[in-house]
Amino acid sequence: MDMFLKQQQQQKMMMTPQLQQSIEILQYSTLELEQFLYDQQLENPLIELQPPSFQERIFGDSHSLVRSTENDLYTKIAEPNYREELLQLATLTFAGNDLQMVQFLIEQLDNKGYSPAHLSNVANEQHYYGIQLLQQIGPPGIGARNLQECLLLQIEENDYDLQQLIQKGLSLLAERKYPELMKSLKLSKEQLLALINRLQQLTPIPCALNSVDNIEYVTPDIVVVIEDGTLQFSLNDRSLPTIQLQDSYKNLASLLPIVEQAYVKQQYKHYEWLVQSIQRRRQTIIRIMSVVLQHQQQFFYHGLSYLKPLSLRNVATQIEMHESTVSRAIRNKIILTPVGTYLWKDLFSSKIESTQKEHSQTSILEMIKKIITFENKQKPLSDQKIAESLASSFQIQLARRTISKYREELGIPAASKRKEL
């Protein structure tokens, strides 16, 4: 066999470091992008960041296609640390061994107000005694070791019928086995219904002991509002600092040695790339959101039941971009709308092919949820009945097993588990 050399020219797509970083920038949420910019300032001496003023945060300029909104940060209000309050109350109420026992028990409580089933080096009798002490300074049920004990601590000692329901009937009640429950407790339907109503007045969570550290802050990346009857959206990016060039470095570049001049030129190119990448990210988000806003108008007015099918490919075709670019742009971003706060990707939903009209999977899930919400609780609908309701009311033809799958996705139990007296 003869051996020979052959030259061949090929075109190949190379993923450069800058291209990889441009993709990452596109995927960043607003908060992640802000942190990235400050990291870039530390790495590149030519970059200077100017944080926005208070007026700019509130009244900052936005793209001509969008409108600004009054608030750019939506947070959950931090609640007081209730564990600390309990410890202070214990100090004012108890002394000696009782105080030590209550303080130890408070420290062991989980964030719902329950204590562990067993405490090391503490006898069961001491543990229960500590729980009884806790009832004097905290909400009823605090310190309980399980749900049953929590509920029993909230009722009167002479309330025999309710005690029996809690001690013997919770599992049957959870499974909606009412005939067995009435037989076991020797109660009529009216008596059981009255007990269940009283049971529902009790709380399964004695108190919330979440500290301020557990509070999560949510900042939407896009805000949609209805203004004068018209939908408008804005990018919630007024908190981002302005990228400026350190002119002193640029002016001194010609006076530096050759090696250092090359370094300054390299950093200047990086500065230009960063500015362009952020602008491309912003324009890409605006272009995608403009299509989403136009396509999903009914959703923004009426909610998930009106969400239409919308694919990444459909949007990519309209804005003349690659499907992967759209996928990366919508990732990790939150959108605040007049009908609630969602992940942006939730507004993209596949079409159910078996429907005569155009319905998204998300809208069908919402329809199933509403049908079950308004069903007769004494005779809850089977999956087959739900399928028939969708067919008659919305002309949506789905198999029973599909309804079963969607119901499980929603976390809704079967009809036998939803039955009420």
Question: How would you sum up this structure, described in words?
Answer:
The structure is a single chain. With 421 residues, the protein is of the alpha+beta class. It is built from 20 helices and eight strands. The strands form three sheets. Strands 5-4-7-8 form a four-stranded mixed β-sheet. It has a two-stranded antiparallel ribbon with strand order 1-6. The protein has a two-stranded antiparallel ribbon with strand order 2-3. Helix 4 (82-93) packs antiparallel against helix 5 (96-108), helix 5 (96-108) packs across helix 6 (124-137) and helix 15 packs across helix 16. The longest helix has 38 residues, at 258-295.
Essential attributes:
8% strand; 51% helix; alpha+beta; 8 strands; Arc Repressor Mutant, subunit A; extended; 20 helices; single chain; 421 residues
Q: What does this entry show, briefly?
A:
The protein is α+β, with helices and mostly antiparallel strands and 421 residues long. The chain contains 20 helices and eight strands.
Number of helices: 20
Strand content: 5-15%
Secondary structure tally: strands: 8
Radius of gyration: 31 Å
* Gross geometry: extended
How many domains would you count in the coordinates? 3
Order of helices and strands: HHEHEHHHHHHHHEEEEHHHHHEEHHHH
Multimeric status of the protein? single chain
Question: Strand order across the biggest sheet?
Answer: 5-4-7-8
Structural class: alpha+beta
Biggest sheet statistics? 4 strands, mixed
Helix content: 40-55%
Outline the low-pLDDT stretches: 61-79
Determine the mean pLDDT.
83
Give the termini distance in whole angstroms: 88 Å
